[in-house]
Amino acid sequence: MELVYIFIGFVIIQRLVEVVIANQNAKWMKNQGGYEAGGEHYKYIVALHAFFFVALLIEVSSVQAGGVKWSLIPLVVFLIAQIGRVWALSTLGRFWNTRIMILPGVKVVAKGPYRFMRHPNYVIVTLELFALPLIFQAYWTAIVFSLLNAVILRVRIKEEERALKEATDYEEVFKEKGRFIPSYDE
Protein backbone atom coordinates (compact mmCIF):
# COMPACT_ATOMS: atom_id res chain seq x y z
CA MET A 1 0.00 0.00 0.00
CA GLU A 2 2.87 2.40 0.71
CA LEU A 3 4.00 2.21 -2.92
CA VAL A 4 0.59 3.54 -3.98
CA TYR A 5 0.99 6.59 -1.77
CA ILE A 6 4.56 7.14 -2.97
CA PHE A 7 3.37 6.99 -6.59
CA ILE A 8 0.47 9.39 -6.01
CA GLY A 9 2.72 11.61 -3.87
CA PHE A 10 5.22 11.79 -6.71
CA VAL A 11 2.47 12.97 -9.08
CA ILE A 12 1.33 15.58 -6.54
CA ILE A 13 4.91 16.86 -6.17
CA GLN A 14 5.22 16.97 -9.95
CA ARG A 15 2.09 19.13 -10.16
CA LEU A 16 3.33 21.47 -7.42
CA VAL A 17 6.65 21.92 -9.23
CA GLU A 18 4.70 22.71 -12.39
CA VAL A 19 2.77 25.43 -10.53
CA VAL A 20 6.07 27.02 -9.48
CA ILE A 21 7.29 26.89 -13.11
CA ALA A 22 3.97 28.32 -14.32
CA ASN A 23 4.26 31.22 -11.86
CA GLN A 24 7.81 31.94 -13.05
CA ASN A 25 6.63 31.83 -16.66
CA ALA A 26 3.72 34.15 -15.87
CA LYS A 27 6.07 36.64 -14.24
CA TRP A 28 8.38 36.50 -17.27
CA MET A 29 5.46 37.01 -19.68
CA LYS A 30 4.14 39.96 -17.69
CA ASN A 31 7.62 41.50 -17.79
CA GLN A 32 7.52 41.10 -21.60
CA GLY A 33 4.17 42.92 -21.80
CA GLY A 34 1.90 39.91 -21.42
CA TYR A 35 -1.30 39.65 -19.44
CA GLU A 36 -3.67 37.06 -18.01
CA ALA A 37 -6.97 36.39 -19.78
CA GLY A 38 -10.01 34.54 -18.49
CA GLY A 39 -8.71 34.40 -14.93
CA GLU A 40 -12.18 34.14 -13.41
CA HIS A 41 -12.32 30.37 -13.88
CA TYR A 42 -8.75 29.62 -12.74
CA LYS A 43 -9.75 29.09 -9.11
CA TYR A 44 -12.11 26.33 -10.26
CA ILE A 45 -9.30 24.59 -12.14
CA VAL A 46 -7.11 24.74 -9.03
CA ALA A 47 -9.96 23.43 -6.88
CA LEU A 48 -10.73 20.64 -9.34
CA HIS A 49 -7.14 19.41 -9.32
CA ALA A 50 -6.75 19.73 -5.54
CA PHE A 51 -9.99 17.87 -4.83
CA PHE A 52 -9.07 15.29 -7.46
CA PHE A 53 -6.06 14.22 -5.40
CA VAL A 54 -8.06 14.31 -2.16
CA ALA A 55 -10.79 12.15 -3.70
CA LEU A 56 -8.23 9.82 -5.24
CA LEU A 57 -6.46 9.27 -1.92
CA ILE A 58 -9.76 8.73 -0.08
CA GLU A 59 -11.10 6.28 -2.65
CA VAL A 60 -7.82 4.40 -2.95
CA SER A 61 -7.61 4.13 0.84
CA SER A 62 -11.17 2.88 1.22
CA VAL A 63 -11.46 0.64 -1.84
CA GLN A 64 -8.02 -0.90 -1.54
CA ALA A 65 -8.06 -1.52 2.22
CA GLY A 66 -7.45 -5.20 1.59
CA GLY A 67 -4.45 -4.62 -0.63
CA VAL A 68 -3.65 -2.68 -3.75
CA LYS A 69 -4.11 -4.09 -7.20
CA TRP A 70 -2.41 -2.12 -9.94
CA SER A 71 -4.00 -2.18 -13.39
CA LEU A 72 -1.42 -2.32 -16.14
CA ILE A 73 -3.32 -0.75 -19.05
CA PRO A 74 -4.23 2.50 -17.22
CA LEU A 75 -0.66 2.62 -15.87
CA VAL A 76 0.74 2.43 -19.40
CA VAL A 77 -1.73 5.12 -20.59
CA PHE A 78 -0.72 7.34 -17.66
CA LEU A 79 3.00 6.86 -18.33
CA ILE A 80 2.56 7.62 -22.03
CA ALA A 81 0.61 10.74 -21.03
CA GLN A 82 3.59 11.76 -18.88
CA ILE A 83 5.83 11.58 -21.93
CA GLY A 84 3.29 13.68 -23.82
CA ARG A 85 3.15 16.15 -20.92
CA VAL A 86 6.92 16.67 -21.00
CA TRP A 87 6.81 17.03 -24.79
CA ALA A 88 3.98 19.61 -24.71
CA LEU A 89 5.43 21.64 -21.84
CA SER A 90 8.97 21.64 -23.17
CA THR A 91 7.70 22.63 -26.63
CA LEU A 92 5.94 25.68 -25.20
CA GLY A 93 8.88 26.54 -22.96
CA ARG A 94 8.36 29.92 -21.28
CA PHE A 95 4.94 30.20 -22.93
CA TRP A 96 3.56 27.22 -21.00
CA ASN A 97 1.33 28.11 -18.08
CA THR A 98 -1.51 26.84 -15.95
CA ARG A 99 -3.16 30.22 -16.50
CA ILE A 100 -4.15 31.77 -19.82
CA MET A 101 -1.19 34.07 -20.36
CA ILE A 102 -1.15 36.14 -23.54
CA LEU A 103 1.82 37.93 -25.05
CA PRO A 104 0.35 40.16 -27.77
CA GLY A 105 1.83 40.01 -31.24
CA VAL A 106 3.89 36.87 -30.61
CA LYS A 107 3.60 33.98 -33.03
CA VAL A 108 1.91 31.01 -31.39
CA VAL A 109 3.91 27.84 -30.94
CA ALA A 110 3.04 25.42 -33.74
CA LYS A 111 5.72 22.77 -33.38
CA GLY A 112 6.06 19.59 -31.33
CA PRO A 113 2.63 18.15 -30.53
CA TYR A 114 1.10 21.51 -31.49
CA ARG A 115 1.91 20.66 -35.11
CA PHE A 116 -0.88 18.13 -34.95
CA MET A 117 -3.60 19.67 -32.78
CA ARG A 118 -4.49 22.86 -30.95
CA HIS A 119 -4.68 21.52 -27.40
CA PRO A 120 -2.47 18.48 -26.83
CA ASN A 121 -1.87 19.42 -23.20
CA TYR A 122 -5.61 19.32 -22.46
CA VAL A 123 -5.83 15.89 -24.08
CA ILE A 124 -2.98 14.78 -21.82
CA VAL A 125 -4.58 16.21 -18.67
CA THR A 126 -7.85 14.50 -19.59
CA LEU A 127 -6.06 11.17 -20.03
CA GLU A 128 -4.24 11.61 -16.72
CA LEU A 129 -7.38 12.46 -14.75
CA PHE A 130 -9.04 9.35 -16.12
CA ALA A 131 -6.14 6.89 -16.12
CA LEU A 132 -4.49 7.67 -12.77
CA PRO A 133 -7.52 6.63 -10.68
CA LEU A 134 -8.11 3.58 -12.86
CA ILE A 135 -4.62 2.31 -12.04
CA PHE A 136 -5.95 1.69 -8.51
CA GLN A 137 -9.62 0.91 -9.36
CA ALA A 138 -10.79 4.32 -8.09
CA TYR A 139 -13.67 4.35 -10.55
CA TRP A 140 -15.73 7.10 -8.92
CA THR A 141 -12.82 9.50 -8.93
CA ALA A 142 -12.11 8.72 -12.59
CA ILE A 143 -15.73 9.30 -13.64
CA VAL A 144 -16.61 12.31 -11.49
CA PHE A 145 -13.42 14.26 -12.14
CA SER A 146 -13.37 13.43 -15.84
CA LEU A 147 -16.86 14.93 -16.13
CA LEU A 148 -15.92 17.99 -14.05
CA ASN A 149 -12.78 18.43 -16.14
CA ALA A 150 -14.87 18.35 -19.34
CA VAL A 151 -17.08 21.14 -17.96
CA ILE A 152 -14.17 23.35 -16.91
CA LEU A 153 -12.26 22.72 -20.15
CA ARG A 154 -15.27 23.86 -22.13
CA VAL A 155 -15.03 27.24 -20.39
CA ARG A 156 -11.23 27.28 -20.43
CA ILE A 157 -10.76 26.53 -24.12
CA LYS A 158 -13.38 29.06 -25.17
CA GLU A 159 -11.61 31.77 -23.14
CA GLU A 160 -8.15 30.75 -24.27
CA GLU A 161 -9.00 30.64 -27.95
CA ARG A 162 -10.83 33.98 -27.77
CA ALA A 163 -7.84 35.66 -26.13
CA LEU A 164 -5.32 34.10 -28.51
CA LYS A 165 -7.39 35.07 -31.57
CA GLU A 166 -7.55 38.69 -30.38
CA ALA A 167 -3.84 39.11 -29.70
CA THR A 168 -1.86 36.61 -31.80
CA ASP A 169 -1.78 34.74 -35.10
CA TYR A 170 -3.62 31.80 -33.46
CA GLU A 171 -6.56 31.70 -35.87
CA GLU A 172 -4.36 31.70 -38.96
CA VAL A 173 -1.93 29.09 -37.62
CA PHE A 174 -4.51 26.64 -36.27
CA LYS A 175 -7.44 27.07 -38.69
CA GLU A 176 -6.79 23.61 -40.17
CA LYS A 177 -6.03 21.86 -36.85
CA GLY A 178 -8.54 20.02 -34.73
CA ARG A 179 -8.79 20.86 -31.05
CA PHE A 180 -8.14 17.35 -29.82
CA ILE A 181 -7.91 15.13 -32.88
CA PRO A 182 -4.55 15.11 -34.65
CA SER A 183 -4.35 16.33 -38.22
CA TYR A 184 -1.26 16.22 -40.38
CA ASP A 185 0.10 18.64 -42.93
CA GLU A 186 2.07 17.32 -45.85
From TrEMBL:
It is a multi-pass membrane protein. GO terms for molecular function: protein C-terminal S-isoprenylcysteine carboxyl O-methyltransferase activity. InterPro entries: ICMT_MeTrfase (IPR007269), Metal_cation-efflux_comp (IPR052527). Keywords: Membrane, Methyltransferase, Transferase, Transmembrane, Transmembrane helix. The chain crosses the membrane at residues 6-23, 44-64, 70-88, 129-152. GO terms for cellular component: membrane. One of its GO terms (biological process) is methylation. It is found in: Membrane. This is Isoprenylcysteine carboxyl methyltransferase. The lineage of its organism: Bacteria, Bacillati, Bacillota, Bacilli, Bacillales.
